[in-house]
Write a structure and sequence with these properties.
- It is a single chain.
- By secondary structure, this protein is mainly beta.
- Helices cover 5% and strands 41% of the residues.
- It contains two helices and 22 strands.
- The termini are far apart.
- The mean pLDDT is 96.
């Protein structure tokens, strides 16, 4: 990667870097006031991978787009299999425009879908507008998930709407929480009987990792408060388009085959409450896009200044 490959969005609050040649990845989301980076830096260098490479072979940082599945799966009979974390993170995206906004697009390989994403800044917010087009003459199933890996420190806090009191478990390292079960939020009892506060970021221990899903019912947002920075990020979206929030909490347990591992939280607005398109088709949360039809949605990422966690919680409690 060279500086010529990077596209920038800047105002007096945020500085954002995008990398079209490597999956349209957002590589940096930085506060101008503090200079702090909110996205996880790459675990390794940017490099090309094979069409069915595992996501563990990626750079392992930043903000990718997952389409038409997060988990690798075979898909419905007669359809192509979907690789790990979908098609788009491994592709060179096309630059549609790059002035006040950066508009990029890419065509999935396992499904006849084109995703276009327009990114622009508005005050303290990064606005991401998505347009998904079915390029074929057949109805196509899909799921989409944002995949923003965030930098964290011990004591940082995850905040969800008050209506969320249970989350579903997609994965938990060491089966600390059984897969496909509902557990309480924010404090849940593990299989060993210990109570765990999932909302509080712990130390990097090399063993902890959870993927959970929260239903977005009355409100649709999720937030991370960076305690030592006195700043937080709030992800806001429309629950009619994105009725779930995936949450990836990793304290150095992944990827197992690498010496450098993720210490991160990811807040992932998504169309489904599972990672696999096959599972989503089974539980009724897969989307179907009619021939030549399109679907549109928006995600807003807002940087919030708050001198204390209580102040940040108060701000979030007033969100619609």
């Amino acid at each position: 990667m060279s500086e010529q490959d990077v596209l920038w969005l800047r105002n007096d609050v945020l500085r954002v870097a995008l990398l079209p040649t490597f999956g349209g990845k957002i590589t940096s989301l930085r506060s101008v006031r503090t200079g702090e980076e909110f996205l996880l830096p790459p675990l390794g260098g940017y490099h090309r991978v094979t069409p069915f490479a595992n996501f563990s072979e990626s750079d392992g940082g930043g903000f990718d787009e997952c389409l038409p599945s997060v988990a690798a799966c075979e898909g419905s009979p007669g359809q192509d299999p979907v690789p790990d974390h979908g098609d788009l993170w491994r592709l060179n995206w096309h630059v549609e425009s790059q002035h006040d906004a950066v508009t990029l697009s890419a065509e999935a390989e396992s499904r006849p879908l084109r995703l276009t994403r327009r990114a622009h800044l508005q005050g303290a917010s990064l606005l991401l507008d998505y347009d998904l087009l079915n390029l074929s003459d057949s109805t196509t199933s899909w799921l989409w998930s944002a995949h923003p890996l965030l930098r964290v420190q011990p004591g940082d806090r995850i905040v969800l709407p008050k209506s969320v009191d249970q989350v579903s478990v997609e994965y938990s390292a060491g089966d600390l929480f059984p897969r496909n079960t509902l557990i309480s939020w924010p404090t849940a009892k593990s299989t060993s009987g210990l109570m765990t506060d999932l909302s509080r970021v712990g130390e990097k221990d090399g063993v902890t990792a959870h993927k959970i899903f929260a239903p977005m019912e009355m409100s649709a947002w999720g937030a991370l408060y960076r305690t030592k920075l006195a700043q937080g990020l709030v992800f806001r979206f429309d629950q009619t388009a994105l009725p779930f929030l995936g949450i990836w909490i990793c304290s150095g347990a992944w990827p197992k085959e690498r010496q450098n591992r993720q210490y991160t939280v990811a807040l992932e607005p998504t169309t489904s409450n599972v990672d696999s398109l096959t599972d989503a088709e089974s539980n009724g949360t897969a989307r179907n896009l009619a021939p030549r039809d399109r679907c549109q949605w928006r995600v807003e990422i807002q940087l919030v200044e708050a001198s204390s966690f209580a102040e940040f919680e108060s701000f979030c409690s007033q969100l619609p």
